[in-house]
Write a structure and sequence with these properties.
alpha+beta, 4-stranded antiparallel β-sheet, 24 strands, about 20% strand
Amino acid sequence: MDSDKLKDFALYNFEKLIVLLIIAAAGFLAWIGYSKEDIRATRDPQRLATSANEVKNEVDNNHNEEVLAERRTSFEEFDIAKEQQKFLTAIPASLYTPQLWEPGKVAANKVRRKDPELSKPEGIQVQGVIASMAYRSKDGLYALADLEAADEVEKVEQKPTRSSRRNSRQNNMADMYGMMGGGMEGYESDMMMSGMGASSSGMAASTSGPVRKLPADENLGTKAAPTKSVANGEDQPPVPGLGYFIAGSAAIPHKKLIDSYQEALSYAAEYNPRTRDLPTYIAYQVERADVTNKTVDQLTDDDWILRDSNEITIRNAAFYWSGFAPEIVPRDYWVTGVTMWIPPILLDPYQRLATHPLIPLKTQRELDQEQLLTESELEAQKLGNVDMSNFQVDLKGGQTRAGGGGYGSGYGSGMEGDMGMGGYGSGMDSDMGGYGSGYGGSGYGGSGGSARGMEGKAAEENPVDYKLLRFYDFAYLRGAQRDKNAPLRDHKYVYRIRFAVNDPNFPEKPELQPKGKSLDPDAYSRVVSLVAKAAQTQERDYKRWSEWSDISEPVSLPKKLDQSFVGPAKPNSRAKYMEIGNRVVVAEGDVPTAEVVASSFDLGLGTFVPTTIEASEGTVLSATVESADVVDPITLEIKKTGEMVIESAATIIDLEGGVQMPIVKDDEEMTTPGMILMVDSDGKLVVRDSVEEQRIYRIKSYAKERGL
């Protein structure tokens, strides 16, 4: 065949070729679809509903017989003579002196400097996070800012509440009180309440102007603020973007390290807790291992890769983050350069990733004051009430004296001591005096001298138990280069962490180096090798690392870019409580429903797009809406989008609530709160409570603007 015939053949048969390709592609897609695993094998709604009902029935069943069978039926006879005999046994002196004084340690020439033992971090916790974050930009342009302002919301007409008999009785009593002379105060309070109502109405009206705006007190995240470039100092306006990462935290056992330093160094020569011989935290490292296809026991050293350190997070914050979220942990538990900043989370609360169970949210001083107050209350209870009949007042202007004699001026000083004022103040003065003399300039005799006044004492008085460590493993950073080791969706990971301190026997500054003759043999051999290494590399390896922490629980990134917030269950007038035997059950006439705010993250807008769904059993929190009201995370203005698709795999399994409470039958509005059993997008079975999520639900559903 010549070229012309080939061209004609191709021309006349081109459509047939396309049809064949389409048929082949359709067959290929059909083959792929049939080869997929049936989702009902893993997420069968009927099986999940059956499992939930079994759990619910098991909770409702009466287990008294099983508990009563384990209770003790007989007790040993109390022998008072035997108990009194215990008091004749000598009490060990160790109970009164936790840290016994050892005279052999007083001589500094007999004790040498050891390497303090570094306890590993404790309580490592990790969680997957999806949020809107503030990023640096050159021009401050983003898609959400170009949308038009949202329309005003429609006010919801509230049904007039029917007053109960109890309220009527209270109102009648109030009227009687007004007739008996309290009417003027009631009138003034009514005027004040009227004024407050007008003020509140005015504030609500001001938010419904041409541009709706989220009130500042309803912004649960950080307030976006402009930053300046680290390279050239140019302004970098904030823009919203996807925050998709794994956040973690751990606790450094600070008090244990203080005790370890005291034991290893405080009795030795050249003890200097002011500048060298105290825990100085300078770095941390976080490693990650993939356990998607293996167990933790199968991990080897090659499976662990470095994912975060203080240098990595500082670089990310300097080049990509637009500021930081406000700190919520007291300063007592920070470590500069180790307690990393909180990412600039926008609109949503961030307390969960910023805190740790071992770190209090009160300062050490506040905790000490609470302990002193508790002890003083217990002491006052032991003393009992003061019998005032033992005292008489001198009407001539003299001092109050006791009837029994012997008190005199001691009464005043005693009261002052009971109130915790005189003793507390003098104690503080003496403590501050001791602190100043112990840590003063002459107390140490220079940088390398020995602090004789601090010999045997800890470097820090009343230290906190733990210091906070934070770390992050980002799957996405706007403007950053692609990270080949970034965490992946549908993968499971475990983490471990360690920290470093400035080596007290080989510190960063050479002028603080202790003399070799003051070192323990083991510490001396280690320091000699470090000195030789520093002479070759011209760098001091002054970081002394702790052991790796225990491995964390497996964690994954959120599979779906969605979130939801549970609202109240709607009143169900046909539902009521019934007693069946020893169980109280709810007879439901209608299927209970509740409002749920479902939202999914829009990568183009850089924030979550919400919608309100009336959910019941079997509802999947996905929807297609003609438009949605979205809060601009930067300006807090509420914008209107076009048609949006809310994608979520979360499914409601069971729902209860909205039943009128038996104790308030006259009030139709007093109903039981909503409780929802659901499978979230990660396939986890969770219970949601409308009471716990009430505030954030009202914010996300614009309840205040709607008059709810």
